[in-house]
Amino acid sequence: MTVPVTPLHRTQGARLLALLMLGLGIVALDKYVFTFRRPQKDRS
């Protein structure tokens, strides 16, 4: 399968995807920790 895509472009896409996934993971972890750390303090 020959795809006319330069390795640079491909690595750039992979890096972008990894960055997106990392960001989502950080946000999810932040929410998880925030809601799990202080369930007693109902500070809305």
What does this structure look like?
This protein has 44 residues and is mainly alpha-helical. Helices cover 70% and strands 0% of the residues. The protein contains one helix and no strands. It has one helix spanning 7-37. The longest helix has 31 residues, at 7-37. It starts with 6 loop residues before the first helix and ends in a 7-residue tail after the last helix. 0% of the residues are buried. The mean pLDDT is 80.
What tags apply to this protein structure?
single chain, 44 residues, mainly alpha
SSE class: mainly alpha
Rg, Cα atoms, Å:
19 Å
Which stretches are low in confidence, meaning pLDDT under 50 for 5 or more residues running?
A: none
Distance between the termini: 55 Å
What share of residues are in beta strands? under 5%
Work out the helicity level.
over 70%
Number of helices: 1
Provide the residue-averaged pLDDT.
Answer: 80
Order of helices and strands: H
Main sheet record:
none
Shape: rod-shaped
Number of strands: 0
Tell me briefly what this model is.
The protein has one helix at residues 7-37. With 44 residues, it is mainly alpha-helical.
